[in-house]
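Predict the holo structure. Ligand: manganese (II) ion.
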Amino acid sequence: MNLNIKNEKLNRWIKEVSELCQPDSIYICNGSKEEYNQMIELLIKNGGAIPLKKRPNSYLFRSDPSDVARVEDRTFISTSSKEEAGPTNNWLGPAELKKTMLGLYKGCMKGRTMYVIPFSMGPIGSPISKIGIEISDSPYVVVNMHIMTRVSSRVLELLGENGEFIPCLHSIGAPLAHGQKDAQWPCAPIDKKYISHFPEENLIWSYGSGYGGNALLGKKCLALRIASVMARREGWLAEHMLILRLTNPEGRQYHIAAAFPSACGKTNLAMMMPSIPGWKCECIGDDIAWMKIGADGRLYSINPENGFFGVAPGTSYSTNPMAMDTLKGNVIFTNCALTDDGDVWWEGMDGDEPVHAIDWKGRDWTPESVHEAAHPNARFTAPASQCPVICKDWEKPEGVPIDIIIFGGRRSEVVPLVYEAYNWDHGVFLGATAASETTAANIGAVGFLRYDPFAMKPFCGYNMGDYFQHWLDMGGKLGNKAPRIFYVNWFRKNSDGKFLWPGFSDNSRVLKWMCQRIDGKAGAQETPIGLVPDKEGIDLNGLDIPPDNMRELMMVNTDEWKAEIPNIEKHFSIFGSRLPERLKLQLKEFIRRLG
Ligand code: SAT
Ligand code: MN
C-alpha cells in the first residue's frame, strides 16, 4: 500500500484501521471541487442524494428515522478514572470501551470505501488551528466535511513527517456483503451507536451514526469535547458560542460571543439584521468559539469552522434573511421536505405551505397531514463564505477581541429578557446555572427543563466542576480586561403561552443596551439576580410592544427565583468536592440577595 503520505504516524494509523475495518478500497481526500462533485455523483447514484432543481449545486438527503440527531446517551468520555469525566458525562473505561468498539469495527467497512479526510479546524497553517484526520466510510460525511471544515491536501503537506494530528475514526457501522443492496441511509441500531472520546490520547472513535455531530467529527467531538480538554491544559477556552461583530452608528465595533444550547437560535443571532437604525451586525461564527488571551491581555476569539450546520425549520426571510441568502446554492439539506417543483421546504419557511410535498421520510405530505413535513432537527450545511454578512475578518488568525459574553437558554418562565452579571465570578455563576428547555437537536424528550451549564453539558470533555474552575481562573488572568457577562432569555411567554418578545432582528435592541453598558452610557437597576435595564434602558423606538409585555418580560419575581434555589443546590451537589469554592460563595450571596 503506497498512499504517498509522508507522516509515519498517519501511515501506521491508516494501515491499522484498514486491517481492522477491512474496506474494499482506500481513498485519500484532497478537498478539491472535482472531488466534491465526484462524491456527489456517487451519492446521487447510490446514496439517496436528490438534486434540487431550484437551487444550483444543492442536494437533499433523507436519513434513517432512527438517525436524526446527536445521541447524548450514546456519547462517552473515556478517561482512566470516572471522576475525570465528571458527573455530566457518560463514562466507560478505555479498556472496556475499546474492546467493545474494536469488536464492532472489525470488518465494518466491508463492501465500502474508506475515506481519509485531512482537515483543519481554523485556517490552514494558523497557529491557533488544529489538524484532524477523519477516517470514514461515508461519502455523505466527506461532502459535509468539505463544507464544515477546511479539507485539503495542504493539511497533509503541513503535517510533514512528524506533525501531530487528532485521529477521528468514523464508521456508519453497516458492512455490505457481496452483492448486497445498500440502504438509502445505512447506519447501526441505537444500542450499537457509540460516540467516544479518549481525551488522554486526543482520540475520537465514532460508530453507527451518519448524522451531524455524531459523524462530522471536526465539530462537537474535536472542536468542543477534545478541544475543551486541550484548552484547559493550555490555558484557553473552547466554547459552544456564536461570534458576531456589532457596529454602532458612530462606527465603534463590539465583538460578542454567546452560548446557547443547540437549536436555541445561535445561527439566527449570529447573522441578525438589526432593527435599530444605523447598527450593523456581521457574522464570524454560529456555533463554536476558540478563545485565547492575546498579547494585550484581552480575550481573542476565532471560529474554527468553515460552514454552518444550521436548523432548517423556522428559518425564513423574516427570522433570518441572511441565512436564507446563504442557502441559495451549494448547500446540502438533510431531512427537509421536497416540493413538487424540486425545492426544499420546511415548517416556518416564507410564503404559503405547498399543497403537496414529499416529507422527510419520503411519504406524500399535504397541509392536512398530521406529521411535520421536515424533521424538527432538519439541517442545512452551507459554506460560511456564502453568508452575505460574513465579517471580513472572520478568518483572521489572531481572532477578534471579545467585549461581551452572553449566556442563555430557552425559558418560558422566570428568567427576564436580559440582565448583567455583577462581576466575572457572578458571570461564571450565571453560566454554571444556565438552564434550558430541551430541543430536537438531541434524541430524547423535547421541552423539559435541564441545567445546561455554559450550553456545554453535551460538549465538555472533562469534569465540569473543573471546567467551572477553569473559567474562574481565566477571569483571574484577564483581570480588568475581561469581557462583561450578560444573561438573556428571548423565550419568556405570557400566561396564554405566547412569546412576550419578538426576538430575531429586535434582539439588536438588547445587544445595544449591552454595548451602552460597556461604554457607561446606560443605567441599570440592581436586583437579586443581577443588573437589569432601567425603564428607558432598552431602545424600543419603532417597536410596537405593549407596555404590559415589557413589564412581564423584565420582571424579577423573588418568589419564583427562591423556588429555583433547591434546584440549583441539587445541580451543584453533583459536582461534590470539584465544585469551586468561589461558586459556592456566589450561591450564598445570591440566596442572601433574595432575602
Ligand atoms: O451536534 S450537531 O452538529 O448535530 C448540532 C447541534 O446539536 O448543535
Ligand atoms: Mn451547536
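Residues 70, 212-213, 219-220, 262, 309, 441 surround sulfoacetic acid (ligand 1) (CB under 6 Å). The longest helix spans residues 218-234.
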